[in-house]
Model the fold of this input.
Amino acid sequence: MRSIVWNDADEANGAKALEKNLRALKGVVKTEMRFEDAHRLLARYWLEDARLDLVDVDGFGSVYFAEGALRVVRYGGYYYATSTDGRALCGQNPSGAGASFGNVVVAPSRPSVNETALRAFVGDVVRRAAVLKLDVVPVFSLFHPHGPVFRVMFRVDKATNKSGNGGNGTASYDAFAAADDEGVARMAFGGYCDSCGSTEVIRRPLVDVFGHDKPHRRKKGDGGGDGASGKSESRLTCSVCGARDESLAVSGPIWIGPLHDAETVEAMWTQADAMGWLDDDDTENPPRRREKGQLSLCDLLDAFRGEANPRLSGVAHYFRTDELGRKGRCTRVPPRDVLITALRAEGHAATRSHIDPRGVKTNAALNVVVDVANRAVAALDELDGR
Ligand SMILES: [Zn+2]
Done:
């Protein structure tokens, strides 16, 4: 690192904090402090044709700097994006979400809504980058419940023909890509079934909901209405229990690619270990202060590692152990890590979620998870001699 520029629009309150943070870097790299609107600062870099290795924008709410920042990141560089607008991203403020995040819809209060929100945020940056003919992918994605805060580090590259179904040098952003584009489609919708609790990725166009009239190939014998009669072209059906339309709480467009890059997470792990940052900070004296719900760095990177498993690619949700116990789906639910071990023992990919302490990410379907959970509880009972 050669130089670093820190900026805070609020000089009165920001100067002290900047000064303190920069002290450790004095003499190591060239440092500079600025106090102006970040839009102006980024625009000036752009006018000067400057390209930066990394732009970190840590702003409040959903005020957007993505375009300004992405324009001045060099190809192969990074953009570290932030949103603290949990109300919009978690579906509590639909008009706010629509305006700030490109018409995104998030079904509120569903079990893995915080992951849906994180993926809606990622998808919005991917969309904004696509407009600039840039291809961005998250190298790690963080949801922090305190705030909440959404923080995603993107690698920024020039869009290529290979970067998705956009082709012709345009970046990929097509939430309506057909299911047979699965290899490249990175945006889609998520459907949570209110009847059975199953979650799935939906790639069919949602004519009724979004007014999108892109034709899609229909299989012979596929039910549903027809456009000529004014009925819905697209009927959504839960692939597990068969519940239709109104039972499916649909969110999107959301990013359905991986939330983290496995190689980057490994490199972060190695570096954190070398710095001694992975030592159990619970045993520190005095104990390190953490916000409610904050994981230790060791636990967080461990969860990232699990979530980066390629076998979980395309799994855009987690199951919550408490939810598995509702509606009689599970008689009793085993502890999270027991359930994960049991799922893995049967050949499924399974890991904890960094987003929710009760969250289990797995490529197993809901009925399989319930079955494995019930058998794990029975096995625990047998061990206890019950
Ligand atoms: Zn269902």
About this structure: The radius of gyration is 23 Å.
